[in-house]
């Protein structure tokens, strides 16, 4: 099979099982170990896992990647590798992966650390072409005034990552100018985390989707005034989808944006007229009119989503063409503080990972609570106490996990009406209960 034909199959595969099966056959015909790994994963997804499959998968991974195969931060999915370098990860891990046989197949890279560690990792990334890297996420600890990834280093990374389409930046001054021509989606926590959004360098010409939080932590105390505030979100000529919902009112800290009223920011935002999709926290009675004034000046808007129910007494919002939806008020119960966060469950045994959206199951729990068996109710109470108590980023930028016993989680998941993610968690627990420790951890998940 020619290289061009294999590239066509790779581009067509995506996450579709049928296309992945074709791609896996082609890889196996070339003697590429990724083909057998894809086939194993497809078989497990369709028929359930087994110890024999797990053992074979581990053996193939080891023959391909050596000792790297067992690293908990490395994950193989749909033919490609995802690497998460935790704060305590061996600093040689990234260098070994990039320089080894798996390097060309790295699709997602997530880095945590201080200035020195991140600058070193970014320099490694820029040394050679990374043709399949599509997602880059960097979380910086500490505070810095000058960009960790300078415009010069950023330009080298841009040259090395022609397929990059998603960028996550959390912290203070992570990137300087980073005008990647293919970048379509960005998630930011920290108003100057990405200099291109704070007025540095050329525009992000291809950016269409932005999730933007003014601060990386909800208790941050870095002021944003005057010219710095006015320059935000100027170099995004193609942006149509903007999510500001993480700039939410959290007592007793006032706005996460440290005094920046997100609705007034939207009202004064020069690009608001081009937006088609907008996500915001729920307005209060004091700023609903400000929000309405902004909506009246957004002719292209198609959909407004409020991630919280508007406060009591807030007048109904209106728009000439847009659909407006708001989260329902949360009914009384242990889920009173549920928010629209994602959480990740760990550890479930390599390579399993489940990302949950707890707020989606609130209606199911509210409807079933009174008739729910006592063990399930106890289980959900413990799970929900853990979920509502999950910490935000700590000094390393990494949210800490909260442990819940496996037994209580399994009791909670006996109810009907669970969405697919919770069902997947239930299936994994039933299949692996004898291999897992007594507890599993839930932590916040800020990936895409």
Describe this structure as you would to a colleague.
There is one protein chain. This protein has 448 residues and is α/β, with parallel strands linked by helices. The protein has a domain at 343-444. It has helices spanning 3-13, 17-29, 33-47, 51-65, 92-99, 115-125, 151-160, 226-230, 262-268, 288-295, 362-368, 374-388, 406-412, 420-432, and strands at 74-77, 80-85, 106-113, 135-140, 166-170, 185-189, 209-213, 241-243, 277-280, 303-306, 323-326, 343-346, 354-356, 402-405, 439-444. Strands 1-2-3-4-5-6-7-8-9-10-11 form an eleven-stranded mixed sheet. Strands 13-12-15-14 form a four-stranded antiparallel sheet. It is globular. The protein starts with a helix and ends with a strand.
